[in-house]
Design a protein that fits this description.
Blueprint (H helix, E strand, L loop, with lengths): L6 E4 L6 E9 L3 H8 E3 L13 E7 L5 E10 L10 E8 L1 H13 L3 E2 L4 H8 L5 H12 L3 H11 L2 H25 L10 H30 L1 E6 L6 H9 L17 E7 L2 E7 L9 H16 L2 E7 L6 H10 L4 E6 L9 H8 L4 E3 L8 H13 L14 H22 L4 H19 L5 H9 L6
Parallel strand pairs: 1-7, 8-10, 8-11, 11-12, 12-13
Antiparallel strand pairs: 1-2, 2-6, 3-4, 4-5, 5-6, 9-10
Helix pairs in contact: 4-5, 6-7, 6-14, 7-13, 13-14
The structure holds guanosine-5'-triphosphate and magnesium ion.
The site of magnesium ion (MG) has 6 residues, from helix 8.
Amino acid sequence: MFVDDTISAVATALGEGAIGIIRLSGPRSCEIADRIFKAASGKRLEKYPPNTLVYGHIVDGNGVIVDETLVVFMRSPHSYTAENVVEIQAHGGIQSLKKILSLTYEAGARPAEPGEFTKRAFLNGRIDLAQAEAVMDIIKARSEVSLKLALRQQQGQLSKEIGLLRRRLLDIIVNLEAVIDYPEEDIEEVTFLNVKNTIYDVQSEISLLLNNAHTGKIMREGMKTVIIGRPNVGKSSLLNSLLREERAIVSEIPGTTRDVIEEQLLIDGIPLVLTDTAGIRDTDDYVEKIGVAKTKKILEEAELAVVVLDGAESLHDEDRDILEAVREKPYVIIVNKSDLTQAIDLAALKADFGAENIMQLSAMTSEGVDDFIAWLKKYVYGAGGQLEEGIYVQNARHEYLLKQASSALSDALAAAGNHVPYDCIIIDLRNAVEAIGFITGDTVSDEIINEIFARFCVGK
Ligand SMILES: Nc1nc2c(ncn2[C@@H]2O[C@H](COP(=O)(O)OP(=O)(O)OP(=O)(O)O)[C@@H](O)[C@H]2O)c(=O)[nH]1
Ligand SMILES: [Mg+2]
């Protein structure tokens, strides 16, 4: 899959900006740049030491100046793609960038495909697949924490761990194969017990990675959270209080919110996709009915349900129905209107649903909202309530593969437990090695590689 042509693309966002960058990568980068770039010094770009910023102009075939630029040449392998790379810093206007780009094509470059620069960095072995994927996560990071996690992955934290686990599994395979091939020789004593112990160890490490994947995914994609409850309990007021603005209409008339309101927000760095819904009740109002049906659908899709109850009233049958509906999924119960005299039987509620998932607050005065935020942080980060050092798998593909590997290791453990012949255990172990190899791209098909890079932007 090695490539010998030279690609070019605009690497910055297309729009009006102070500068825009055109990037070339491939063996002919410098030669192509020298055809369209005239340094003010009169020297050719290739005569400069690599990584020197050279001032000059881009000129077209007739010698007419197209733009004033700074140009840098990075020699293979010391570049983003590990190939010869030239970056042209031009004025950041769409016309000027398009013009320069077309000149690079005329001079012999071909248009880069989406993600092709990063793909080349991967194919040339400078980074592995997990690191390449992290590049995209860095660009798309929604929050500071998400950025931090993507950077850890791009620096190779996950890759290193995967490499170690892979090594350990390969060691067992090699040992088992040696025992099979040379049974008479006393190679290194491999017993079912130490095979089992090693597999068990590796599986525990994978479980640790999977435990953090929940946090990682929320950070990358945002946590789908739905606020539900019967009419008039203060759902829209809670949304507004979290947003610190009057986003949703609040009124004393039950059935105020009839449609779904979705907002993306960061609460103490946690990205939420928060939906306020129509209060659930039996209603004859046609529009409200549609709203209630939508609410039920959104509840199904949400990762977390925030059930709001009115603390100033005792539980209604509708409240009980809603509470029963969320039992199956992660939920938190907000007893709202704590500023009013309370009528709800809090003790009974706590006995039924667990005190740790219930909190009293007032969406009107915002008193107690901090407790809810603290609860959220624990839900997302675990008991510590904050991001820890270490690896947080953020990517659904990685999570899936880790689960595959773990299940293959369970099979291997079962086989070893039953004293099944070594060959059979080796098959399971190979499956696990293959699954985690897909993460870093040690074992992966062209098709998957193409699919991954197609999701990148052009110029990255
Ligand atoms: N005293 C008090 N009143 C509140 C509180 N939260 C909401 N309310 C009032 O309760 C009424 C209903 O509030 P909303 O936020 O519209 O309730 P909702 O659950 O969105 O109602 P629907 O959209 O009709 O389902 C309004 O009059 C609010 O001012 C609170 O914490 N304390
Ligand atoms: Mg409402």
